[in-house]
């Protein structure tokens, strides 16, 4: 062996001398697929003019508490953009149960029953929304 080839533990020459095992450095900022800076949906900080109008209509015409109306508007908006997002449905369910538990002093069994009912209702609404969107794209 006259050449300065890299040797493996068995003393044989390495087959792949040109490729070095390097790790790619992640770039700065949001990576591909990152949804942290969403402009719409359940976690956005603002309401569109249409959502604001809808919020006031729900609050004033239907007599719904503003906090519940806000959850309703945000959930509807997020399901419109991403109907299969189960995390949003779980978060909305959690917030609704938390609000009702605080305002109506629900005990543990009532809270768990209410959470189960709300989860089923929101899951059904999410599935219907996604089925409606899939049907309209065909």
What is the topology?
Layout: H1 49-61, H2 66-81, H3 86-104, H4 108-137
Please describe what this structure looks like.
This protein is an all-alpha fold and 138 residues long. It has a domain at 49-137. The chain contains four helices and no strands. Helix 3 runs antiparallel to helix 4. The protein is elongated and about 80 Å long.
Concise structural overview:
The protein is mostly helical and 138 residues long. 57% of the residues lie in helices and 0% in strands.
Q: What summary fits the major beta sheet?
A: none
Rough outline: elongated
Number of strands: 0
In angstroms, what is the radius of gyration?
26 Å
Chain oligomer state: single chain
Query: What count of helical segments does DSSP give?
Result: 4
| Share of helix, binned | 55-70%
Give me the secondary-structure category.
Answer: mainly alpha
Topology as a string of helices (H) and strands (E): HHHH
Name the poorly predicted regions: none
Q: Could you tell me how far the N terminus lies from the C terminus, measured between alpha carbons in angstroms?
A: 66 Å
Average pLDDT, all residues: 80
Strand content: under 5%
Please name the defining characteristics of this protein.
mainly alpha, 57% helix
